[in-house]
């Protein structure tokens, strides 16, 4: 039974308990809540690791059902002036809530994507935070701290959200897989987790897309196709051919693969580079190959032609091995 919601929303953690990974952070926050002493919070870290989800779970835990009345969500990257924000915060902070929210008196103000606020706005915020601290707690969410004003950071307790660990990710995804009756091979699931690098949003989006398209069980190749990333098996073939075949075999193999699978040379290069680092090879030759590949990557990114750079890549490996 599907109610049409994207899985990232359908499976947004409802409680702190169900947030995957970052156990240390969750435990600390649980202690704060237990003692009724929530400080201003700063959550930062890569996308899809549960920052927004965690703050919503906190609000639910503290305020129960009426949590929506107790939390003001401001998306800092909306193009609003700081005056509007100040006005909204002022109105929100000055209306007292008489029901819900058990013994806790404060309300929660969430500033999402705060790293895209202008410096002027961030400066204004420092004052606002101090002014309304008695009845409100601020929670600042960001991807990068280096774009945040140090004075702002120092007013908050900081938590860095790490990419979600593989084991925790798997456990979470397995629940979704069971609930949605997804047919996926063990190998494909492991590849998906590896590709998503701890980003749960990405995991769920790719899984849902593959599930929607799949006729049979989802295989590793479906995952790679869906994210538009080369299948490592194909790249191994390319590397083998680069190192062993004639030019007349190698070039068509690569060109055909690029065309059939819709791959860009830049994506292939990244993976070829990874393999070349580990392949058994004389150190001098390895150094030559890697330097050559990095030159090609540079030329590609500055507008070099795919065709010529593809031949160039073969040339790099050939001349290094001679
Ligand atoms: N730790 C997690 N446990 C379970 N699900 C998660 C977790 N992190 C992210 N998700 C899933 O990914 C979706 C997006 O997560 P969320 O909005 O919390 O990410 P975020 O860290 O705020 O990312 P961004 O930096 O892009 O705002 C959630 O709806 C949920 O489905
Ligand atoms: Mg977020």
Describe the 3D structure.
This protein is of the alpha/beta class and 322 residues long. It folds into three domains: 139 residues, P-loop containing nucleotide triphosphate hydrolases (Rossmann fold), CATH 3.40.50; 62 residues, Orthogonal Bundle (Helicase, Ruva Protein, domain 3), CATH 1.10.8.60; 89 residues, Zinc Finger, Delta Prime, domain 3 (Up-down Bundle). It contains 16 helices and five strands. Strands 2-3-4-1-5 form a five-stranded parallel β-sheet, sandwiched between helices. Strand 2, helix 5 and strand 3 form a beta-alpha-beta unit. The longest helix is centred in the last third of the chain and has 19 residues. The chain is elongated. It starts with 6 loop residues before the first helix and ends with a helix. The model has no long low-confidence stretch (mean pLDDT 89). Bound molecules: adenosine-5'-triphosphate (ATP) and magnesium ion. Magnesium ion (MG) binds next to helix 3.
């Amino acid at each position: 039974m599907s109610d049409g919601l994207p899985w990232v929303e359908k499976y947004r953690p409802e409680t702190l308990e169900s947030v995957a990974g970052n156990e240390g952070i969750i435990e600390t926050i649980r202690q704060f809540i237990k003692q009724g002493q929530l400080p201003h919070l700063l959550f930062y870290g890569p996308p899809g690791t549960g920052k927004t989800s965690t703050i919503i779970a906190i609000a639910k835990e503290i305020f129960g059902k009426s949590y929506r009345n107790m939390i003001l969500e401001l998306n800092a990257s909306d193009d609003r002036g700081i005056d509007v924000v100040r006005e909204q915060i002022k109105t929100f902070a000055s209306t007292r809530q008489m029901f819900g929210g058990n013994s806790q008196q404060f309300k929660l103000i969430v500033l999402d994507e705060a790293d895209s606020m202008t410096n002027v706005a961030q400066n204004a915020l420092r004052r606002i935070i101090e002014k309304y601290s008695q009845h409100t707690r601020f929670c600042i969410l960001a991807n990068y701290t280096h774009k945040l004003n140090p004075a702002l950071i120092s007013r908050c307790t900081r938590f860095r959200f790490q990419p979600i660990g593989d084991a925790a990710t798997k456990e979470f995804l397995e629940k979704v897989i069971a609930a949605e009756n997804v047919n996926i091979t063990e190998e494909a699931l492991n590849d998906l987790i590896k590709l998503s690098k701890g980003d749960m949003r990405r995991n769920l989006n790719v899984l849902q897309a593959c599930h929607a398209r799949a006729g049979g069980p989802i295989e590793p190749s479906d995952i790679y196709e869906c994210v538009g990333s080369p299948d490592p098996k194909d790249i191994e073939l390319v590397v083998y051919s680069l190192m062993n075949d004639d030019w007349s075999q190698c070039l068509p193999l690569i060109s055909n693969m690029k065309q059939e699978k819709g791959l860009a040379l830049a994506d292939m290069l990244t993976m070829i580079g990874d393999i070349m680092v580990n392949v058994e090879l004389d150190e001098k030759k390895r150094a030559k190959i890697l330097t050559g590949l990095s030159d090609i990557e540079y030329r590609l990114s500055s507008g070099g032609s795919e065709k010529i750079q593809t031949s160039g890549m073969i040339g790099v490996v050939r001349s290094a091995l001679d």
